[in-house]
Structure formats: C-alpha cells, structure tokens
UniProtKB/TrEMBL annotation:
UniProt keyword terms in alphabetical order: DNA-binding
Keyword Signal on entry: no
Coiled coil: none
Name of protein: Single-stranded DNA-binding protein
Transmembrane annotation, as ranges: none
Entries under InterPro entries matching the protein: NA-bd_OB-fold, Primosome_PriB/ssb, ssDNA-bd
Subunit details: Homotetramer.
Single GO MF descriptor: single-stranded DNA binding
UniProt xrefs under SUPFAM superfamilies: Nucleic acid-binding proteins
GO CC, alphabetical: nucleoid
Length: 110
C-alpha cells in the first residue's frame, strides 16, 4: 500500500516551453506548466470545458527528457508526488507553491 501514498498522475498539454535551470555540478531542474481539461454539460445542456493548470518540476534524466522533447502544446503524461512549499518574495510577502515533482514522463504524438 506504500506505493499509493502521495501519487499524482496527469495527462495534459504543456502550457509553456520548459524552463531549465542548471546548478553547480551540472544538476538540472526543469519547470513546466501542464494544462488538463475536463469537458462537461451544464444544467442548460451547454458544453463547458474546465481547464486546470499544474506546475511540475523534474530533476536529472527526467528533466533532460522533458527539455529535449517537450514544447508548448505537446501532450504529455506525468507521474510524481505532490509537494507544497513557501518562500518570502522580494517584498517580504510569504508565497505558497503547490507542485508535482515528476518521477516518470510519457510522451505522446510525434
């Protein structure tokens, strides 16, 4: 049952080109925004689409795959864990971030 703890799976489209950061020693971090869409019909029978935006980050070889093959609009499937963190911005205001740390990525299409 431990394999099911804090596991996130998303299939969506890249909302931006990956943002790459390289740290000392060559360690690579990639940040990506993924859009997921849910289509439904409201009470009036009108078709509606609800889009959710998800921040995802990846390290190491997974980051390299995303950097090389994922561009804005590309459909991808990711698996990882949900994390929350805080930081103080330039004005001293506390900011909160929820993101998925990617462990696996699956590419669709060409």
């Amino acid at each position: 049952m431990n394999a099911l703890k804090n596991k996130v799976q998303l299939i969506g489209n890249a909302g931006i080109d990956p943002e790459i950061k390289i740290f000392e020693g060559g360690k690579k971090l990639v940040r990506l925004i993924i859009a997921t869409n849910e289509t439904y019909y409201n009470d009036k029978g009108e078709k509606k689409t609800d889009t959710q935006w998800h921040t995802v980050t990846a390290w190491g070889k997974t980051a390299e795959i995303i950097e090389k093959y994922v561009k804005k609009g590309k459909e991808v499937a990711i698996e990882g864990k949900l994390t929350h963190r805080t930081y103080d911005d330039r004005n001293g205001d506390k900011r909160y971030i929820t993101e998925v740390i990617v462990s696996d990525v699956l590419l669709f299409g060409k």
